[in-house]
Every structure is written in C-alpha cells, then in structure tokens.
TrEMBL record:
Protein keywords: Signal
Signal peptide (UniProt feature, chain positions): 1-21
Domain of life of the source: Bacteria
Protein name per the record: Curlin associated repeat-containing protein
Species for this entry: Anaerobaca lacustris
Length: 194
C-alpha cells in the first residue's frame, strides 16, 4: 500500500500599484510504502509489486519555482513448503522546500530537505522456503529563485536500489534485515550590500 501526500502553498505580495513585490512559497511531499507477505505451513507462494510516481511542481513566473519528483518501486516474493516465511518492506520519503524571494534588491532565502528511509526484512524457519525483496528509488527536489541582484539554485537527487534474497532447506532458519537512510538539507540566502 502506498500513501502519498503533497501540499503546496504560494503567497504573492503585490504593492498598491500592482507591481511585483516579492514571493513566498512552500512545498511538502510525503510518501509511505508498506509491503508484507506472511506464509505459515502448507505449500504457498505470495508475490506483491507496487510502483508509484509523484510529480509536485509549482512556480511564480519570473520569480521562483520548485519541484519534487519521485519514482519508487517495491517488489516482494515468498514461497514456502511446510515452513514459516515472512517478508516485509517499508519505505518512507519526506521532501520539503521553502522560498522567500524579495523584490528588486531585497534579500532572498530558500531551503530544502529530502529524507528517505528504506527497510527490508526477510525470515524463514522450519520447512523449505525462500523470500526476496527489491526496492528501486529515484528522488529529485530542486528549486530556484531570482530577483534583480541574481539567482539562487539548489537541487538534491537520490538514486538507490536495495535487494535481499533468503532461502533454506527443512530444519534450518535464517533472517536478513537491510536498511538505507538518506538525510539531505540545504539552506542558502543572499542580500544586497548596504
């Protein structure tokens, strides 16, 4: 099961004459994916495949733009013959971006974060059995802002693959637990010299 949450907020400041006075925007994207197979006794096979693409973009023409793109996949398989086999995957992504771009020569600031955690756990005991798991992850967050004194640009990209395989014969037991974590944060700003 995948759950994706995307929210965007844009605030545009206008002076009485209607001229552009500055821009603020914020974007938050969250993804949670969980995959689970449990086999108990008897002869059984289980498979699960999930793929998700998220594209969250926003811009204030001529002043600021930001975007988040994510493509993730989860594949899980298990088979057992008179054994206990369990396979679990958990993937969480949280990306956030904020910008405050001042007009003319006013200061401009922006920041972003992109955090990801991927976990896989495979286990089997008693009878013959096998399990396999695969995560594929491509994430990108970027933003830019400009006013009369220049531009700010930043981007974070994460690409990863995680795979696990476990098999065994009757009377044996085994387990595998793997994990990946990425924490990325950027903050930048510029202002006019007085």
């Amino acid at each position: 099961m995948f759950k994706a949450i995307a929210s965007s907020m844009i605030v545009i400041g206008l002076v009485a004459s209607g001229a552009f006075a500055g821009a603020e925007q914020e974007q938050l994207t969250g993804i949670q994916g969980i995959n689970l197979i449990q086999l108990a006794q008897g002869e059984q096979v289980g498979e699960s495949l999930q793929n998700l693409v998220v594209d969250n973009q926003q811009s204030i023409v001529g002043a600021a733009g930001q975007g988040f793109f994510g493509s993730i996949g989860q594949a899980l398989g298990a088979m057992g013959e008179c054994g206990l086999v369990a396979a679990t995957q958990n993937l969480g992504v949280l990306g956030g971006q904020w910008q405050n771009i001042g007009d003319c020569i006013s200061p401009k600031f922006q920041g972003s974060s992109l955090d990801m955690t991927a976990m896989q756990e495979l286990g089997r005991a008693n009878g013959a059995g096998a399990a396999s798991a695969l995560h594929t992850i491509v994430l990108n967050g970027g933003q830019s802002g400009a006013n009369a004194i220049g531009t700010l640009d930043e981007a974070t990209t994460v690409m990863g693959m995680q795979t696990s395989d476990l098999s065994g014969q009757p009377g044996s037991a085994g387990s595998i637990m793997t994990g990946m974590t990425v924490v990325g944060e950027q903050i930048q700003g510029s202002g006019a010299m007085q």
